[in-house]
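Training component of the fellowship. As part of building independent skills, the fellow (R.M.) carried out the full modelling exercise for a liganded target. The chosen ligand was iron/sulfur cluster. The inputs are recorded below so that the supervisory panel can assess the work.
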Amino acid sequence: MNKIIFFNPRSGRFNHRVPISVLQIAASVQGKYEYVIVDGNMEKDPWKKIEGYLQTNEFKFFASTVMPGPQTKQAIPITKKIKLKYPELIIIWGGYFASNHYQAVINSGFVDYIIYGPGDKAFPHLLDAVLNNKSADEIENLVFKKDDKIIKTRKGEIPDQDQLPRLPYQTLNKFYPIKNYFGKTFLGTKTFAYHSSMGCPFTCAFCGIVPIFNARWKAKSAVNVYNDIKYLKENYGINGIEFFDNNFFVSEKRVAELSRLLLDEKISWWGEGRIDTMDKYSDETLQLMKDAGCKMIFFGAESGSDELLTKIDKGGTQTGTQIKNFAARMKKFGIIPEYSFILGFPAETPEKVMKQIDDDINFIKEVKEINPDTEIIIYVFSPVPTEKSELLNQSEDLGFKFPQKLEDWLEPEWEKFDTHRNPLTPWLTKEMVDKIHNFETVLNGYAPTVSDYKLTVMQRKIIKWISSLRYKKNIFSFPYEIKMLQKFWLRYRQPEFEGFYME
Ligand code: B12
Ligand code: SF4
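Fellow's submitted model of the complex:
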């Protein structure tokens, strides 16, 4: 039998989103191959479930999505076990981790094929080739080994997103009730995840999607997105949407058209965009978005320094002044800007690295003055494998190296690297990393995330009051009193790890 097991490894302890990546791949073989879905987020012990399926002898393919960080924790050991116990099974990985670190993955010996980038065409072609004993050399977006040599086939075009079938929600529902993927968030009581475009037209040097898409972007039309949302509303009653696109707001025309369609649907939504792109939007479009339910937008602000913005190839026209002015502009429309900053970029000297961190801390405080509703997300810079990027070259010159062995990614320090918490890159000292995290703790005490709706007004007031002296006087060291309150009293959850607070 030629059945497929699709595996979505656990991505976090909470907030279990609908597994869009595997559903989209499943859609590409719907009606052609039989498959089952194992969602690591919904299983206590996914291995038990997988082994149960394998013992039926009906399966030929194990296909797993793997994004960096926590998903590797299940993906690596489970795949290894499968390869050892069921060596005849064909193992295929896809997703951002598999795509960006394909050498380590394919050299591990327990993954037969990697699909890098979009798998909508490559996956069914690969299955056909394997089952018909045909060569895979001509299939785009594929990595495999031949005579001990790694073959990476050419990059294919991003498929026309309007030609892709709707995700097989009903099939997923047979394995895991769809209702278990509806979260209660600050957007709505039934918040659902949706993805409306592939890639991004920019080439920021720190971003993991650049090596895969090289500034290409394709989107579903506004009408098709609306039809899907309408379907989800009518069939499942959703009332909140997280648009998980890398860059949802590339086209003002598409956003305005979708907003017009959503005006009377009573759906609140969130998405990710760029400040310089959206600063070019007209006031009419921003107002229309607000009226159509847009509550918050995630922006990669990255840094207040123009020199750094240029160095990290933020692309486009973003500047420090624009970041501040745009925070003020969003206030006028009542849309919350969620600004993400990356601290800890390399520099010529340790003093300069520290100065960059200090300057950005002060910049973040300025932004909060201008629009106190601005939500701040802080990451520590972890290099991404964009070949020939100046930032990667500089990181490597300073002694940084990616792990060569797949299982090394399971080491705690590489997990911290992946989640952009504590990458221990050679130019960052403990003092610098502590400063970044301690500032973050104080900031989150002074201004807790607005998306955690379970915090009461009183709780917010108390934690703000306790943190205010530290925040105002820049005293960040050892903020244990705030950490204790966040851990035991507020059970505070930071959106950078798990997305919105969700019940
Ligand atoms: C949803 C999401 C999450 C969710 C997890 C969702 C889940 N699985 O339950 C949460 C919020 C938990 C999360 C967390 C993190 N995430 Co995340 N996440 C995303 C996001 C926004 C959407 C993923 C998605 O659904 N895409 C839609 C599908 C259709 O696209 P796709 O995954 O690319 O799938 C296509 C191909 O890759 C391929 N494919 C994918 N899987 C498979 C499998 C097989 C078998 C095949 C054949 C093909 C294939 O085919 C698909 C269709 O064409 C992406 C950005 C994005 N827009 O993709 C970031 C993204 C994947 N995350 C990223 C990161 C860095 C993280 C974190 C590490 C961040 C952090 N600081 O903590 C954490 C930790 C990860 C974790 N906890 O596992 C980065 C990865 C970049 C990189 N360096 O490689 C991304 C790209 C965001 C970004 N622009 O930086 N994330
Ligand atoms: S604009 Fe955002 S998604 Fe696009 S390359 Fe830059 S960081 Fe990545």
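The panel noted the following from the submitted structure. The radius of gyration is 23 Å. The mean pLDDT is 93.
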